[in-house]
Specification:
The chain is mainly alpha-helical and 464 residues long. Helices cover 74% and strands 0% of the residues. It is built from 18 helices and no strands. Helix 6 packs across helix 16 (368-396), helix 13 (271-305) packs antiparallel against helix 16 and helix 13 (271-305) packs parallel to helix 17 (402-429). The radius of gyration is 23 Å and the shape is globular. Keywords: Membrane, Transmembrane, Transmembrane helix, Transport. This is Major facilitator superfamily (MFS) profile domain-containing protein. It comes from Urochloa decumbens.
């Protein structure tokens, strides 16, 4: 039935979820310094405020993925939105540092559901142009980043950080009134043998897109112990599901848990993809947040470490916001042009190696213009590579463990986000710029090799 009005509405809803996540992550850049100044916090307490959010996102990424595969995508869309919006708003009323710390941790858990929004959207998109639409979907992250930066620029100068927290929770509140019309993923419904509800969703899609529902019936294909798909004749499992059969399937689903999901992710068919995805998600997150920190840290480092001040990167806030937008847009355009042409693996590999090449000259001090150009290219390639990785992972896994698989990989990626400041800030602050850049080079180089080793290319391939 193609990509029509129905998918556009799903895109708008899921995209707003990513706007909310991007705003909460970007918020960390502005919250720490103002709270530290108001409550006289130590630098360690300021850092902990960001760390607890990432810790919450790590837990949330795995937890929401498992809940999504077991109880449905819509369940996660509702619960995570309620958690993020409610506690995000309450954190604006925090009376002290400890209360703020606890509330932001739970906001991090809610924000960890971002990958479920992405998987839910992709399960409605036709295979032929799934890459292009995922890139378009990723643009919502850029919108959220720029929106939060602009909001902070205005609010912090006129009001206070409490208003910033409250206003940053608004995108999640906007989602709540529209939840009732959001459809469950028909792929999830089919995987759980709920064919009548899956057909109802497809009929809604046909009506919205003004297209004819194809002839035929939905059939349920059970999974064997060898993780292969059992192809049964159409007349064995027609659209009319017997109550007994439905009960048996639900019983089997209820008995499956985290252990079974992990067993399937590490089964013979998926083990190589899973282990490589874990590493690439870690490396991608490590590099993505690391390059952002390099941009803000290099100027201070070179003032303190270089007696002749070889260069300085002095950017006004407005220029920083503009550069964030331009580099993100450049990365998305780059990935959009390549992902459905060269394929997922080749594009990810090329972007990882290109990011590595842009960072290479920074092992030595460079002049301001050259450094800015190199960081621009590195951020653009890093954004593009991360975008395609978020597309590739849901395409690799079957519906029954898609959100769990992507959730675990995303959680491992968050570890990279936590570890990278030790390199980007720690090594740079101790005047070891060359060592810091070489660590990023090594991680990106290994990530590029890992992309080459992915066992499957998913371009144009139907989701399992």
């Amino acid at each position: 039935m193609g990509f029509g009005k129905f998918q556009a509405l799903v895109l708008a809803y899921a995209g707003m979820g990513w706007v909310a996540e991007a705003m909460e992550v970007m918020l960390l850049s502005f919250l720490g310094p103002v709270v530290r100044e108001e409550w006289n916090l130590s630098p360690q307490d300021e850092s902990l405020l960001s760390s607890v959010v990432f810790a919450g996102m790590l837990i949330g990424a795995f937890t929401w993925g498992f809940i999504s595969d077991r109880y449905g995508r819509r369940t996660v869309l509702l619960l995570s939105t309620l958690l993020t919006s409610g506690l995000g708003f309450l954190s604006a009323l925090s009376p002290n540092y400890l209360c703020l710390l606890v509330l932001r941790f739970f906001v991090g858990i809610g924000v960890g559901s971002g990958h479920v929004f992405a998987s839910w959207f992709l399960e409605f998109v036709p295979a032929g142009n799934r890459g292009t639409w995922m890139v378009i979907f990723s643009f919502f992250w850029t919108i959220g980043t720029v929106l939060e930066a602009s909001l902070a620029w205005i609010v912090l100068s006129a009001l206070s950080w409490r208003w910033l927290l409250a206003l940053s929770a608004l995108p999640c509140f906007i989602l709540l009134p529209f939840f009732r019309i959001t459809p469950e993923s028909p792929r999830y419904l089919c995987a759980h043998n709920r064919m009548s509800k899956a057909t109802a969703v497809l009929e809604r899609m046909a009506n919205a897109n003004q297209a004819a529902l194809p002839q035929g019936v939905l059939t349920y294909h059970g999974e064997t112990k060898t993780d292969s798909i059992t192809r049964t004749p159409e007349d064995e499992h027609l659209i009319s599901i017997r109550e007994k059969e439905h009960t048996v399937v639900n019983a089997l689903c209820s008995q499956s848990g985290v252990t079974d999901a992990l067993r399937k992710l590490l089964s013979h068919n998926l083990r190589r993809s899973t282990l490589l995805l874990w590493f690439v998600f870690y490396a991608s997150s490590f590099a993505y947040y690391g390059i952002a920190l390099l941009t803000s840290q290099l100027s201070d480092v070179n003032r303190s470490c270089s007696s002749d001040l070889i260069f300085e990167l002095q950017q006004k806030d407005g220029n920083l916001y503009k550069d964030t937008f331009i580099t993100s847009l450049a990365g998305l355009i780059l990935s959009a042009l390549l992902v459905d042409w060269f394929g997922r693996k080749a594009t990810m590999c090329c972007l990882m190696f290109a990011c590595c090449a842009f960072l290479g000259p920074l092992v030595l001090h460079q002049n301001e213009l050259f450094t800015t150009t190199l960081l621009f290219g590195a951020r653009a390639c890093g954004t593009g590579g991360t975008t395609i990785l978020c597309l590739y992972a849901p395409e690799v896994y079957p519906t029954s463990v898609r959100s769990t698989g992507v959730g675990i990989a995303t959680a491992i990626g968050k570890i990279g986000g936590v570890v990278c400041p030790l390199v980007a800030v720690g090594m740079l602050r101790s005047c070891h710029q060359m060592a810091a850049i070489l660590v990023f080079e090594l991680v990106l180089l290994l990530a590029g090799v890992a992309c080459i080793l992915f066992p499957v290319e998913t371009k144009g391939r139907e989701m399992d």
